[in-house]
Amino acid sequence: xxxxxxxxxxxKTDECxxxxxxxxATPDSFWEGSRGGENLALKLIDEGAxxxxxxxxxxxxxxxxxxAEEEIRRxxxxxxxxxxxxSVAISVDTRKKEVIEAxxxxxxxxxxxxxxxxxxxxxxxxxxxxxxxxxxxHKRGIPAIMQNDTSYxxxxxxxxxxxxSRVSYALSRGIEPNKIIVxxxxxxxxxxxxxxxxxxxxxxxxxxxxxxxxxLSRKTCIGEMTxxxxxxxLCGTIAADMIAVMNGASIIRVHxxxxxxDSLRVMKALVD
Length: 272
Fold this sequence. Notes:
Layout: E1 2-6, E2 9-13, E3 18-24, H1 38-46, E4 51-55, H2 68-85, E5 89-93, H3 97-105, E6 110-113, H4 123-130, E7 134-137, H5 155-172, E8 180-183, H6 192-200, E9 213-214, H7 220-226, H8 234-246, E10 251-254, H9 257-271
Parallel strand pairs: 3-4, 3-10, 4-5, 5-6, 6-7, 7-8, 9-10
Antiparallel strand pairs: 1-2
Helix pairs in contact: 2-3, 8-9
């Protein structure tokens, strides 16, 4: 059984990994099927999502950042509707203290920060004060230009060192060790070979001391392996997610919650 610690309790799963369902309250996220509000969220909850990840700012390659006010306008109605209908854990994909503060006041449980607490100097202290888990992700640069430089001498060592440094920072700001999750940032300033290496070695990040989230769903690297467009990458996503779980991932962030659960159940039956 896997366990994640929230502010006022824990969530558990008997599957090989937790399933986080993606709800992008944005007009420009890379795959149209991920864009939606409370109806999409409730559908993913019905399919069994352990966590719903709500985002109001696209971080796809080439995307422009939006204001905190716009993020709040997009996500708060969704969070309110989710919380009115369900006690499911809610993660918020944001880099801004104002946004996570507004979200937590409406019942959100987890901070998913693609900047690893770097972009807002006050966000770490807020997370520590509220006792919420944080997801620390590696990226290079900002989304608008992050694919301009994808060269590494040793991608695993460099990503691992960065995440270890951000874990140390989180701990120094009072975030509890059992409330830290790391994410290698597949597709964020990385080419195909870098993504492949990180998928194969994800469980070794930070010495295996922290849960690893893998966000592979329908991404470009899946298209590079299959030759398929985003709308046709489900089968490739499932294969990559299951390999990531076998290699140590504890959470998979997906668009297709029902398919992810079916795959995890087959894996459990055949691999355990």
